[in-house]
Amino acid sequence: MFDVLMYLFETYIHNQAEMRVDQDKLTNDLSDVGFHREDIFNALTWLEKLVDYQDGLISPIFLTTDPLSMRIYTQEESQRLDVNCRGFLLFLEQIQVLNLKTREMIIERIMALDTLDFNLDDLKWVVLMVLFNLPGYESAYQKMEELLFDHNDEITH
């Protein structure tokens, strides 16, 4: 499923291609490229939930709005997000690319992926996908894009 999401993001969304494609045509196109229908369905469902955030139909669950609070990860979240991923999320909060709300959206979208093999590079793409789809977060998306695509070796987390 994650491969389908990456393909969609790189091919359609990130390149600002026309996304007014009906789901059947998109499914057939993705099938023709070599993706399995179950992965395609799961990826499209994952994206629909992301659109629900965009439309305000759902919001992430978080228990506090205190910016000085510390996020404690569940055992399942810690298994999916290793220490490098958790550290990178904290770094993104510290440089104000993420806030409490967007961090929780990203964690929820990561936990909705059907993979246990998840790494820091995957996290960066999920962050981009989430920020891209949220109105009002254009500058955060741009900062994240600069972090990813600026080949400046001085940037560390």
Describe the structure.
This protein is mainly alpha-helical. The protein has one domain (1-154). Helices cover 61% and strands 0% of the residues. The protein has eight helices and no strands. Helix 2 (23-33) packs across helix 3 (37-54) and helix 7 runs antiparallel to helix 8. It is globular.
First and last CA, distance: 28 Å
Number of helices in the DSSP assignment:
8
- Estimated helix fraction: 55-70%
Number of domains: 1
- Report the strand count: 0
Topology at a glance:
Elements: H1 2-13, H2 23-33, H3 37-54, H4 75-80, H5 83-94, H6 100-111, H7 120-132, H8 138-149
Helix pairs in contact: 2-3, 6-7, 7-8
How is this structure best summarized?
This protein has 157 residues and is mostly helical. It has eight helices and no strands.
Please give a handful of descriptors for the protein shown.
157 residues; mainly alpha; 8 helices; 61% helix; 0% strand; globular; Smg; Protein Smg
